[in-house]
Amino acid sequence: MVERVQAEESMALLIFLLLAFSVVSADEDAFIGVNIGTQLSDMPHPTQVVALLKAQQIRHVRLYDADRGMLLALANTGIRVVVSVPNEQLLGIGQSNSTAANWVSQNVVAHFPATNITTICVGSEVLTTLPNAALVLINALKFVHSALVASNLDRQIKVSTPFASSLILDSFPPSQAFFNHSWNSVLVPTLNFLQTTGSFLMLNIYPYYDYMQSNGVIPLDYALLKPLPSNKEAVDANTLLHYSNVFDAMVDAAYFAMAYLKFTNIPVVVTESGWPSKGDSNEPDATVENANTYNSNLIKHVLNKTGTPKHPGIAVSTYIYELYNEDMKPGPVSEKNWGLFDANGKPIYILHLVGSGSVLANDTANQTYCAAKDGADSKMLLAALDWACGSGKVDCSPLLQGKPCYEPDTVAAHATYAFDTYYHQMGKALGTCDFNGVAAITTTNPSRGSCIFPGSDKINGTFLNSTAPAMDVKSSGAPAQCFYGGAFSIAFIIIGVLGWSAVLL
Ligand SMILES: *[C@@H]1O[C@H](CO)[C@@H](O)[C@H](O)[C@H]1NC(C)=O
Ligand SMILES: *[C@@H]1O[C@H](CO)[C@@H](O)[C@H](O)[C@H]1NC(C)=O
Ligand SMILES: *[C@@H]1O[C@H](CO)[C@@H](O)[C@H](O)[C@H]1NC(C)=O
Ligand SMILES: *[C@@H]1O[C@H](CO)[C@@H](O)[C@H](O)[C@H]1NC(C)=O
Ligand SMILES: *[C@@H]1O[C@H](CO)[C@@H](O)[C@H](O)[C@H]1NC(C)=O
Ligand SMILES: *[C@@H]1O[C@H](CO)[C@@H](O)[C@H](O)[C@H]1NC(C)=O
Ligand SMILES: *[C@@H]1O[C@H](CO)[C@@H](O)[C@H](O)[C@H]1NC(C)=O
Ligand SMILES: *[C@@H]1O[C@H](CO)[C@@H](O)[C@H](O)[C@H]1NC(C)=O
What we know:
Subcellular location: Cell membrane
EC number: 3.2.1.39
GO biological process, one term: defense response
Enzyme class: hydrolase
Strand content: 5-15%
Main location: membrane
Bound molecules: 2-acetamido-2-deoxy-beta-D-glucopyranose
Oligomer: single chain
Radius of gyration: 25 Å
Shape: globular
């Protein structure tokens, strides 16, 4: 009875949340997009890329060029597209207005409006990676813009150029940040251009590198946008604004650096941000867990429209770097591992959005499992296990001594079996892999030996060696009971907060 009342309350709450979120989503200017790099040895065909975008409900993408196949595949999808003039073509475009006009006509006008091109990036991090093209940057911006004006598209399509955040010096405290003065002769006309054309400052922000290069000055949690106790926040002594993450501090540094040059009304869009999921031995913080934490927190932060301390409530739309792992990228291992997906469209990790459920990195391969979280409290695991085998109606007999799933006899291993079974019994519905926060969705098949987990029966026997990470955790608590009979069933509410999928992207 108690459980039913709570279920009804939770349903009411869910409906309330859905309504609340749909109001937020009505605001068009807060969005998350994804960058699509193409340096893959087996780059998926544009139609496959677009199928993945649709399945994941990704509605904003940035291309590093204006690939015709991609632009055709993106036609009539509703997906908003940023195209780019690659750095290699910048000199040509910045030196000749007819070259610029041809580029716009072939790569933009020919596809618009079927392909909803909203923005043109002219070059990428030009001042820091291609300084000898800096002198033509402003002309390239102007020529591209003039070509849009001539085609009467300048109101629908904005023109800008992404800057590396390293262009901003002394970025903490943000109130003292300024652009590298060496570039003022380029920056002032560029900002002037952005202001008069109603465009925005594009900034690439990589807290991962800021953290790596800080020699321990920047705490990991501060880089990962984790909630910090207020006494750990960084305070800007000039403004008394409190910063709880690198991302906000960099965005505010950009606002202050612009203000220093007397530009106060140019909005910021973050054209790249992310975290690598794998790295060399000297990149120990490039992990799946950190990548997931960063990107999940970033998405929540952007969509929540928290804004920054300087401009609270002003959302900073952000493009995550990036859709695919790019195995052909030169450099350290981390360079190849910024993606949310592999070339087959299989998620590298399932984002933690609102604690449970998969939203962005959707289960397209249909192979997700529900496992006990690493380090979860063993009493809570035991209670959840007990609930799953009792009220949850999971057949836990394979966990009995002598049965296939008895070994390893730990609470975490047994809980994973029960959680995964429940999750699949419930059709992998959102919110059915939470168990009061002690369970999480994983793409690692927890099956081992003859203990075949639900969700993996299609590949019977081919994964006998794989062990879920959760299995490695030796629970410090009591050994698992042989029968989880519901001795202390907990009233347990699953609130699948579907709201995010409605808001996302
Ligand atoms: C290019 O510039 C020349 C001279 O500055 C001008 O006459 C011409 O109209 C421009 N062409 C375009 C396509 O804007
Ligand atoms: C294209 O994107 C813009 C900006 O988001 C939007 O206002 C417009 O309605 C879109 N057009 C189409 C045809 O979807
Ligand atoms: C500022 O930019 C100049 C020109 O690219 C560069 O040589 C210099 O190192 C930069 N200064 C800093 C502190 O990064
Ligand atoms: C949005 O941010 C505010 C302030 O940081 C926080 O209190 C609130 O819980 C957040 N809401 C969501 C839905 O994340
Ligand atoms: C996941 O993908 C399926 C199609 O494969 C789609 O129907 C579903 O809406 C997606 N769910 C989310 C939350 O994106
Ligand atoms: C995923 O699995 C469900 C049943 O578990 C099935 O109904 C659905 O068609 C599958 N989807 C794909 C894309 O394989
Ligand atoms: C799965 O493997 C087990 C043991 O190898 C075997 O007994 C069982 O018949 C297999 N199931 C299917 C569906 O192939
Ligand atoms: C399973 O593990 C053993 C040793 O642990 C190894 O020799 C064997 O090749 C593995 N099998 C597969 C299919 O990975």
